[in-house]
């Protein structure tokens, strides 16, 4: 009798374990659905990473091509200087002038203009102002290369470049600004044969609700002090970011997603182009100082933006910068100043 009871107990335990192990079809289907959804999310994330890697590779190739072009230009300029120096030595016609870094301030420049001491002829190529020879304190932000001074907003005052832009799916644009006027106007414009507004960067007191354009809030920049401004955009994510003095001032989404900025157009500082390389309007001009302008073919990280603003070098991927300035027009002057503290 005891053995029979033991057998019955074991049978009950086996039945209980069998019921416990038996899978619930509904639960299995739910688990399978969750697993499929998780795999889809992972696949989507991998596709985004792949797209970003492809764009990064494309940007790197464009950067290498751009660096090769710059190197060829520098070699050409070096050959010209060496040849000119050789001719000067042979003919004894005087020494060749070297670009001189300047300590002159915008106020001193404007006073010189009023006294008629500064030549304000038509076009000037990279004119370097000669300032007072004074001992200078060591600079801390020394990645700016040079500065351009726009004494007034005029259709004649603008800057052109020796290079164009490659096709861009992402970009970062950073520069130092010093403005004393109540508005900023156009900082940069990029025009092609298909559109004179492929890329326009300008400041305005109020924001715009136009879905194609975004205006930058600039009221904090109009205090006659230097400010660092960065604007970043990604076609992949349709997002943009706007930094003032390395702090995020604004950002947005659903902005020009999937759009590519075409290459080969005309880049101008200080004026908006209503046609390629022209069609300027004084009301859209810039008055003030710009320094350290650079444009990258990728989105800089917040740490990189902070590093540029602090003078800690220049991140990779630059496709256009101050060193590519070809010509300054009107009353604009190009001042050599490696450090921001020397730019006036």
UniProtKB/TrEMBL annotation:
Its cofactor is Ca(2+). The keyword Metal-binding applies. Keywords: Calcium, Coiled coil, Disulfide bond, Glycoprotein, Metal-binding. The keyword Signal does not apply. InterPro entries: ConA-like_dom_sf, Neuronal_Pentraxin_Related, PTX_dom. Transmembrane segments: none annotated. Pfam families: Pentaxin. Residues 36-84 form a coiled coil. SMART domains: PTX. GO terms for molecular function: metal ion binding. Residues 144-341 form the Pentraxin (PTX) domain. SUPFAM superfamilies: Concanavalin A-like lectins/glucanases. Gene3D superfamilies: 2.60.120.200. This is Pentraxin 4, long.
